[in-house]
Amino acid sequence: MGHAGMLACRLVRGSKTSISNHAWGTAIDLTFDGEVDDRGDGNCQSWLLLVYPYFYEEGWFWGTEFPTEDSMHFEMSDESVRSS
User: Do 2 and 34 meet the contact criterion of CB atoms below 8 Å apart?
Assistant: First the structure.
């Protein structure tokens, strides 16, 4: 397992003003064997289904719930950030 973005200082994809949660270390994109899950294809690598419950238990959102599916993306909820 690896990652493709945490503490990556950048804007939200397609934005010129909104800072990405990756910039604050409150979001991460996970990879497996260096393979990036294709964003917006409506599919999910099976191993992500195995790790999702652990993130959910800790108050993280999964990118499959976004308007454009991003199943390798996990980010902390505002509630989790504020309670830390």
Answer: yes
> What are the helix (H) ranges across the chain?
46-57, 78-83
Give the residue numbers spanning the domain of 17: 2-83
- Specify the residue for token string 């949660």: 21
Total domains in the chain come to 1
Does 59 score more than 60 pLDDT? Answer: yes
Q: Report residue 51 as tokens.
A: 């790790």
Rounded Cα distance, 48 and 4, in Å: 14
Neighbours of 24 (CB within 10 A): 14
Rg (Cα) of the chain, in Å, rounded? 12
Kindly report the backbone phi and psi dihedral angles of residue 35, in degrees, each rounded to the nearest multiple of 5, phi listed first. Answer: -90, 125
**7-37 tens-digit pLDDT:** 677 888 888 998 888 888 889 989 888 888 8
